[in-house]
Design a protein that fits this description.
2 copies of one chain form a homodimer. The first copy, chain A, has 8 helices and 11 strands. By secondary structure, chain A is α/β, with parallel strands linked by helices. The first copy, chain A, has one domain: Class I glutamine amidotransferase (GATase) domain (Rossmann fold). A 7-stranded mixed sheet of chain A has the order 5-2-1-6-7-11-10. Chain A is globular and about 45 Å long.
Chain lengths: 200, 200
């Protein structure tokens, strides 16, 4: 059984944690998904309290690590030298991804050597200030590292992850239950397109 | 300032609460959004604890009421005579909506006299068993009552709500921040199409 960790922190963007959490949480036989955080209780950007399932250090042993985002939460976490210290990640043995401003964690961890990524349109300028080229697409993948941008791109990021850990059939089965009624074909075409476009 | 209530209960589908919560929670000047529930602590289908902001009775005074969903949570709530009892809703003065199996609450409250609605594809048969025609589309609106189906259709439901309470410009501004990077046009076209299609 694969082990998937989602990294959270105070003032995380609600949807950027919960969308990945729910899409991945529906399968309980092929993988286990856990929210990891720096302390026993976190508060979302909109004020919901979440109690992580384990400490950040657990991510180092996970098969996959996904970073959530937060307009205020990411800068605050990056400003705290203790935040990333417990994380020893390795794209040779782990699939690693980010949504929106989560890309800045990947950069700090040295996981974006290709200097191309995506993020939320509002954070484009920050990527450029780090000498990373922001690509105007919802998902950018380089081997086993992916960045996603725009909250709903979590659908593509989780799809990429399941296809990377398993295969395209399991990716389709994972995403199908969240697609809008009567629009499955158009969303599946969008997902297929975005995953193909994503590969650098 | 408008008052928007999201109804939750034990074993709610995580995304069916949190997606509406986050999309609506980003605006703090035109409306206030609160999660209402039958007891001080709720547990999501995937095990997250949420503490509602108020009791269900508060929904009777809200300008808008949105019902979340839950494969196990909705039948359990409907089986409890005390659950819907505090709710006195009126589509003449309130906008009322549901995602997925939340449609069954609307039916129980007598809010679907047109006998047409949408829900999650997996719950289609339940609608039919209630003599409601399931329409194969993500959003169905009748005056100020809307049903949505398929988790991501929460984007359309919240869009419909803001356009109903305010106008199309505010609806676009509300949804823009969650759209995938590089795909704003295609999603805005999907949203426009779904809202037009929705009107019976």
């Amino acid at each position: 059984m694969k082990d998937i960790a989602i990294i959270a922190f105070d003032k995380f963007t609600d949807i950027d944690l919960f969308l990945m959490w729910d899409i991945l949480g529906r399968n309980t036989t092929d993988w286990r998904v856990r929210i990891l955080g720096p302390q026993p209780s976190l508060r979302s950007a909109h004020g919901l309290e979440v109690r992580p399932h384990g400490p950040l250090a657990d991510a180092s042993q996970a098969d996959a690590v996904l970073f959530s985002s937060g307009k205020e939460g990411v800068p605050a976490a990056l400003a705290d030298p203790a935040f990333l210290a417990p994380l020893t990640l390795d794209p040779q043995r782990q699939a690693i991804g980010s949504i929106c401003a989560g890309a800045f964690f990947l950069d700090r961890l040295g996981l974006l050597p290709g200097r191309q990524a995506t993020t939320h349109p509002d954070a484009r300028g920050v990527l450029q200030s780090l000498s990373i080229e922001p690509l105007d697409q919802p998902l950018v993948c380089h081997h086993r590292v992916a960045t996603a941008g725009g909250c709903l791109a979590a659908v593509y990021l989780t799809g990429w992850l399941i296809e990377t850990l398993f295969d395209a059939d399991k990716r389709r089965a994972t995403l199908l239950p969240v697609l809008p009624t009567g629009q499955r074909e158009v969303y599946e075409a969008l997902i297929d397109f975005s995953l193909r476009q994503a590969r650098l």
